[in-house]
TrEMBL record:
Its cofactor is adenosylcob(III)alamin. It comes from Streptomyces macrosporus. This is Vitamin B12-dependent ribonucleotide reductase. Residues 897-906 have a biased composition (Low complexity). Residues 1-23, 861-912 are annotated as: Disordered. It catalyses: a 2'-deoxyribonucleoside 5'-diphosphate + [thioredoxin]-disulfide + H2O = a ribonucleoside 5'-diphosphate + [thioredoxin]-dithiol.
Length: 955
């Protein structure tokens, strides 16, 4: 451990002395003597997640504890994804406090053990501040941290991995095994296959080599098998091939040929939808493919020159191709099926901090992590909207000081995690511990830009994004240099010191050259400039603790955990969003950022209200009353009437790339009218603007997408010239006989009295329900009569009782509270009580148990034996209510309503993507979620399910 001391840092002080060294921390959000948990209002909620396509319950846990300001989505996703312990057992986590404590206390203990803190008091401040930041959704670690840290299983903290493979069968088989183990753990990996001999080269035995494309088939099949073996998302993998590899054309064409196969098989009647029975016969579908190009190739493309393809063993040119023609093939393939993407090798290695150890040859599946082979990266992301500050006069600013303090704290925690982390292979463990690669990033940039009145595709928007990114990375490296003084630089630093310092100078120079635009970005640039000067000074003196500090990841599941409107560097999806409500139901709501943006732009409250009403009705700002046309661009989104141009996405990436250690996970969406020439131009401009990687997606280009309902209807139509046979099926009403068995139940819910008569068919099944409350002729009595008739008619037409039970239980409205029914002690409304009682009286045990409905006797049995009857893995909150005091939520603080319009979401809509599709009459490029059937949305170069938090990538 080095004896070097370091200079004080904003928000915390690094101290070194002979007796002991460590970081000193100052409080950012917390109060001495008060735990962060004691400053928020907690409430109990029930989490029941279903697959809306078949109504099956995917997950259920009742009575979980969260702050009252957490959204339904955030609660559902954290409970189902991150809570540990078997459902229905005492070991199961039931509160966000338990989750945060499990992780944060582990970080504190490791930090104390390895000498990161100057004193126990500093360790306590670190613990409280870290807990506060997670509790208030200011930042989140990547998913593996929440899965694994503080549990009995391996302490895996990284989501991103890069592997390597050499030109030998032993190495290729190791690749299959290592990749499989990573997929099994729910993470993703990437690698470069360019060391493997091409099919145009000879083996030592005299025969021709198989070539890397051949070996890709085996790896693809393995990934597909592991995916279907119980994972909730596709295996995420990246395959890279250098542009000078002799098999490059075959690599480029792999997916294009498979898309043609899909078309042919679909036309022949096979089920080729994503997730369909016959799609597994298609190869190469489990990986993202990227071509690694160098400057020599791109210059040959510009000049129209020849380019040499080189033998893998000797390096000699064995074939010359037309560079422009090869580039055209790449663009044609990407235009047709979105693969391959492009990675710019010389740019990547120009910003490499450890070149003396080895070149950067590949990336993780989402293309944001790029470093040495056999390494991993631990990610965390900040919620940028939490740092937007507004004074009493309504003036906005970015809270630079608080942002810096939070970055310092988070990067410290991320480095501590490497001290106790486990890794899937020994080679990855050795490299990661020697270079300590970190990937701090952010989410909600799109929301921040709109809220501050900046168009995503504008100089002002790019300036603010660049400034924040520069400040984040500079602060991270400054803290890394301070940590090097306390616990030592990374093991590989001495060998790479000169290169690492050169890259720091490149970042600082880019910061100096960046364009300042307005009152929001200028103070951020100033703080970043100062931080980069500290980086250069402290780095030269102490070295650095980490070879890499920052990336821009997709922030899929953790973005939902933080209730972010936008993921990573992405713009807003649309102006109108789909929002789930506590107690069930959903609304379509105009983004909260819209009123903030209008206020920033100088509009008055009554104007804002009118514009928001227009957006709620039309889904866009075109012709909104009083809105100036020059302000339309502020509200441009990824989808909609005014969608952001492809080059707008590229320019935003270029604005942030010079200030990132790694790269950016992002796909450039292009309209269906885009041409191959447009793709070529995007790839060319990406190289000229200094990006490290780029991928495109042309709307409706992939065949293997879910069919829309309209397409499915068309598929079922008779072929042209044939008579179409129309068969119409109608339900038949099954009336009850004159004499019918029935049960009459008196009940009290929250002090309100009523009677329910439930009559059934003589053979089986409920047939009608009558409800009596209040005096005859009153409005309530009339509504109850109407409701009873509607339910009864539905039952007689064949609507299953369990459908009504699943829809109406947990519906929350007054009167609610205690009942006089021993089987249903608490009800959230009269309707909630009625359908719980009907379920107990008329549904079989297995059906209602799956819905979480049990009698008092069954709950008592569960308390005594751990089983209701057959073993049921669920948390019996209702049973606990018998012995536990009643939970009463404290009154919630009244918040000033923001001008926003909302309406019930259409019944056939289950996500924001589906809502936008309905408004615009188009199909998004996203697949359906394997877990819950909801239409996913883009998050970087991956897909994210808003319903359950599943992702198609590795974040």
């Amino acid at each position: 451990m080095t004896e070097t001391t370091s200079d004080p840092a904003r928000g915390s002080k690094a101290r070194g002395n002979k007796a002991g060294k460590g970081l000193r921390f100052e409080r950012i959000h917390t109060t001495p003597g008060v735990h962060p948990y004691d400053e928020v209002v907690w409430e109990r909620r029930d989490v029941v997640m279903t697959n809306w396509r078949d109504g099956s319950v995917n997950f259920e846990q009742r009575g979980v504890e969260f702050p009252d300001f957490w959204s339904v989505n955030a609660v559902n996703i954290v409970t189902s994804k991150y809570f540990r312990g078997a459902l229905g057992t005492p070991q199961r986590e039931t509160s966000l406090k338990q989750l945060i404590d499990r992780v944060v206390k582990t970080y504190r203990a490791a930090g104390e053990k390895h000498g990161y803190f100057a004193s126990p008091a500093d360790a306590e401040i670190f613990e409280h501040e870290l807990a506060y930041a997670v509790l208030h959704q200011i930042f989140a670690f990547n998913s593996p941290v929440w899965f694994n840290v503080g549990t009995q299983q391996p302490q895996q903290v990284s989501a991103c991995f890069i592997l390597s493979v050499d030109d030998s069968m032993e190495s290729i088989l190791d690749w299959y095994k290592e990749e499989g183990m990573i997929f099994k753990g729910g993470s993703g990996a990437g690698l470069n296959l360019s060391r493997i001999r091409s099919s145009k080269e000879l083996l030592s035995s005299g025969g021709n080599a198989s070539g890397p494309v051949s070996f890709m088939r085996g790896a693809d099949a393995s990934a597909g098998t592991i995916k279907s073996g119980g994972a909730t998302r596709r295996a995420a993998k990246m395959v890279v091939l250098d542009v000078d590899h002799p098999d490059i054309e075959a690599f480029i064409e792999t997916k294009v040929k498979e898309e043609e196969k899909i078309r042919a098989l679909r036309d022949a009647g096979f089920d080729m939808d994503l997730g369909g029975e016959d799609i597994t016969s298609v190869q190469y579908q489990n990986a993202n493919n990227s071509v690694r190009v160098n400057d020599a190739f791109m210059k040959a493309v510009e000049s129209g020159a020849k380019f040499g393809l080189r033998a893998r063993l000797t390096g000699e040119v064995i074939e010359e191709v037309d560079a422009r023609a090869l580039f055209r093939k790449m663009a044609e393939a990407a235009h047709a099926c979105a693969d391959p993407g492009i990675q710019y090798d010389d740019t990547i290695n120009h910003w490499h901090t450890s070149p003396e150890t080895g070149r950067i040859t590949a990336s993780n599946p989402c293309s944001e992590y790029m470093h040495l082979d056999n390494s991993s990266c631990n990610l965390a992301s900040l919620n940028l909207m939490k740092f937007l500050r507004e004074d009493e006069q309504g003036n906005q600013s970015f809270d630079v000081e608080r942002f810096v303090k939070v970055v310092e704290m988070v990067i410290t925690a991320m480095d501590i995690s490497i001290c106790f982390a486990d890794f899937p292979t020994e080679k990855i463990a050795e490299t990661t511990r020697a270079f300590r690669q970190l990937g701090i990033g952010y989410a909600n940039l799109g929301a921040l830009l709109m809220a501050t009145g900046h168009a995503y595709d504008s100089d002002g928007g790019r300036a603010l994004a660049g400034a924040i990114t520069s400040l984040m990375t500079a602060t991270s490296y400054r803290r890394s240099a301070e940590l090097a003084a306390i616990v030592g630089p990374y093991d590989g630093y001495a060998r790479n010191a000169e290169a690492h310092q050169r890259v720091m100078r490149q970042h600082a120079d880019a910061n100096t050259d960046a364009k300042r635009m307005d009152d929001l970005d200028t103070p951020v640039w100033a703080a970043a400039t100062e931080a980069w000067q500290d980086v250069l000074r402290l780095g030269k003196k102490n070295g650095f603790r980490n070879a890499q500090a920052s990336v821009l990841a997709p922030t899929g599941t953790i973005g939902l955990m933080m209730d972010c409107d936008t993921t990573g560097i992405e713009p807003d999806l649309a102006l109108v969003k789909f929002k789930k409500l506590v107690g069930g139901g959903s609304m379509q709501i105009v983004n909260n950022t819209v009123p903030k943006a209008l206020k920033r732009l100088g509009y008055q409250p009554e104007q804002i209200e009118a514009i928001v009403e227009h957006i709620a009705e039309h889904g866009n700002v075109i012709d909104a009353p009083g809105l100036k046309p020059e302000h339309y661009e502020v509200f441009d989104c990824a989808m909609g009437e005014r969608s952001i141009s492809p080059m707008g996405h590229v320019r935003m990436m270029a604005a942030t790339q010079p200030f990132l250690s790694g790269a950016i996970s992002k796909t450039v969406n292009m309209p269906a009218t885009s041409t191959v020439e447009d793709v070529e131009e995007i790839y060319l401009q990406g190289w000229k603007l200094g990006l490290k990687a780029l991928a495109v997606y042309v709307e409706n280009s992939k065949v293997g997408q879910p069919l829309s309902a309209k397409k499915k209807e068309e598929k079922g139509k008779a072929k042209e010239g044939e008579a179409e046979k129309v068969v119409e099926y109608r339900p038949v009403r099954r009336r009850l006989p004159k004499g019918r068995p029935g049960i009459t139940t008196s009940f009290t819910v929250g002090g309100a009295e009523g009677y329910m008569t439930a009559n059934s068919y003589p053979d089986d099944g409920l047939g009608e329900v009558f409800l009596k409350m209040s005096k005859q002729g009153s409005t309530l009595a009339g509504m109850m009569d109407a409701f009873s008739i509607a339910v009864s008619v539905g039952l007689q037409y064949g609507v299953p009782l369990e459908t009504y039970v699943s829809k109406f239980t947990n519906m929350r409205f007054e009167p609610a509270g205690m009942t006089d029914d021993p089987d249903v002690r608490m009800a959230q409304s009269i309707v909630d009580y009625i359908f719980r009682r009907l379920a107990l009286d008329f549904l079989p045990f297995e059906t209602r148990s799956a819905l979480g409905i049990h009698s008092a006797e069954e709950r008592q049995r569960h308390l005594e034996t751990g089983s209701y009857e057959p073993a049921e893995e669920e948390l019996d909150v209702e049973g606990l209510a018998q012995s536990a005091p009643r939970q009463v939520d404290p009154p919630k603080p009244v918040k000033a309503p923001e001008p926003q319009a909302q309406a019930p979401a259409p019944k056939e809509v289950h996500s924001s993507t589906e809502l936008v599709e309905m408004q615009l009459g188009l199909n998004a490029d996203a697949p359906l979620c394997f877990s819950c059937g909801t239409k996913m949305r883009r998050a970087g170069s991956c897909y994210l399910c808003e319903g359950c938090g599943s992702t198609s990538g590795c974040s």
